[in-house]
Amino acid sequence: MSVDTTARAAGSPAPASPGTAAPANPVRRLREMARAGLPEDPAPVRELLRQATDRQGAIDLEAAGGLLAAPARRERLAASGALTEQRVAVLGSSTLDSLTPLLTAVLVRDGMLPEIRQAGFNQWRLEILSGAPAFAGFAPRLTLCLLDDAAVFDEIGDPLDAEAVERRCAVFPAELAAWAGRARETLGGLIVLCTLPLSPLRRDRLVSYAARARLDAAWQRMNAEISALAEALPATVVLSHEALAQRAAGPVFGAGRMRHLAAHVYSPDYLLAVAEELSRLGRADLGRAAKCLVLDLDNTLWGGVLGDDGVGGLRLGGGYPGSAHRELQQLARDYQAQGVLLAVASKNDEDRAREAIATHPEMVLRPESFVAVHAHWDPKPGSVRRLAADLNLGVDAMVFVDDNKVERGLMRSELPQAATVELPADPADYATHLAARGDFLTLRLTEEDRDRTELYRARAARAELAGSATDLTAYLAALDSELTVEPAGPLNTGRIVQLFGKTNQFNLTGLRYGEQELGRRTADGGGAFFGARLTDTFGDNGLIAALCLAEEPDGAWAVENFVLSCRVFARGVEDALLALVLRAARAAGAPAVTGRFVPSPKNTRFAGFYAGQGFAQVGEAEPETGATAWRRPLTDPQTDPLPGVPGWIRVPDDKGAFHVR
Amino acid sequence: MSVETPAGTEEERLVAEALAQLLDVDLNQLTTFTVLNTTEGWDSVNQMRVLVYLEREAGGPLDYERFMTAETLGDLAGLVADAAGGELS
């Protein structure tokens, strides 16, 4: 019997009810792995923790975290170099012992190496007042203060005295603010506070509805003021106990016996929700929030399969399930408005996918919403990897959303660093589920996001000025624009690639270039790439145009593609750039400059661009694509003056930065 | 059942699993006769964790007095068997 039992104990799940298929027990597998010696690469550990999160409860994750916290195992995790250290100090008014292993489990799962220290039981106030001896030399990045309602009520003599309760609730936020200030001075880092849930017994001892409502009002005012500390205090985050409670798998408060026995106020489920939030916060604090959302199309962004159902047969908007897919699009749109980049990875014919995105009347997202649309039949991990490279992001900044389990499994095995979202079975919950993950949470807007916001503000200011200027030329002159051309180099290549990739309107040939292609062609002389930057009285617009020039067999300069950001339309920038190309080509002795225009649904507005610049059409339009070829001969400078740069644009270095070799 | 025999009944295996998981001890070292007080990690904090774990597995509360006076793994298993009424879920 012993042999049999041992074998089962090691390899099979805990006793389960008969008929249940043997459930996977990731924590048991983790324990076996831990006892045998953790692997050098923590990836399998992280995968088991991820599975444990999905399939098991807070108590199991606590056990998992306890296993990993053993000093030798922590050393092993640290030695891998694959985890980023995150230091957390925990203070509270109840027993929070289990928070340490829970936090260990979720931080390791999320790629961090936890260093967690706790103050003694209910020492939150004294610890900080006495100069934080328990945290001497610790220097936490995050300091959590998790209080329960006893922190408020302990100083009220008579809980039935409504006025006393109101007075106490009124002063408590200021007390907490002073505490937070002192904690920050003593410990540094980010202070993490949380609003306080009111336990049922506090309220339910009151026997009149009026008294209960009065207590609720005082309590909610207090919590509102605690929330407001996030804005009022530097380096302070305030979590909402209601949001945590909603995420928790069980009740906020633990079993009564555990409270009496061991001062466990909060349930393991609630503490797990706290740990999860701290892990998100920890990631944000380390600047590791995800930045790009990669979305599947069929049965994800819309219901139905484009290849089978056609654009008209897609379920999007209207009633369920179309409404659910639209809700996901609206979430993605709002993410995008806050600086998240969107991309598509779909198994579809590219033309049909783009057509559906552009034309379906219920689409919330539009072609310009996406930095890239990868619609083809190649494996998606390749798309995500390429996207990350094109956008100059790490693969761990990518979040992948796909209804198809097989695609998700492939992504997880090929690109475990990317976050693959385990979608619920019903599309009705897609948006809620994705939003709850908090992949894109940042402490505040990053510099870049702020710049983006700044950019939009500056744009609004420009529009305002346009309204006040009496005529367009005067307005443009008042903008005091300065245009600089720069060849592609290490610092701007990512943005140039991105500009070619995501510009749809002023995009003359639709040719897009990957970073590698750009580097290769620059190196072998097969093409020259340029970016152009525009500054004006409202600030720097950043890189707003990109060009690819190549040399024709007869020595003429060919504008292979030319894209211009819609942010600077109607300011003559395109005229100025082409004038600079012409000038440089003549200076280099080229016989002509040529260009092509390949119509797309988005660029038709610029079909007359080359004609307007004095180019003549060569031959007929190609029947398939409608593409037209254009040429401007460069003859004698005396008899053939070139168009100049518009008078309202200054070009500080107008020696002709453009070249083809 | 000899002292060397790993825990045998369903409840014993369950308790052994809980102790192995929460106390980080070798599952194969645990037997019916394993003495809790001499088991590494059996402190007041871990006692509570084991109690919560076993109550979840048993699907109901365990008798606290009996839990605190249990001396061996087998004693805990008996407690779980009683709490679960023989119907482990």
UniProtKB/TrEMBL annotation, chain A:
Stretches with biased composition (Low complexity): 1-24
Database matches in InterPro entries: Acyl_CoA_acyltransferase, FkbH_domain, HAD-like_sf, HAD_sf, HAD_SF_ppase_IIIC, SGNH_hydro_sf
Top-level taxonomic group: Bacteria
Region spans: Disordered: 1-25, 623-646
Leader sequence segment: none
Descriptive protein name: HAD-superfamily phosphatase, subfamily IIIC/FkbH-like domain-containing protein
TrEMBL record, chain B:
InterPro entries: ACP-like_sf (IPR036736), PP-bd_ACP (IPR009081)
Boundaries of every Carrier domain copy: 5-84
PROSITE patterns recorded: CARRIER (PS50075)
Protein name: Acyl carrier protein
Organism: Streptomyces aidingensis
High-level lineage: Bacteria, Bacillati, Actinomycetota, Actinomycetes, Kitasatosporales
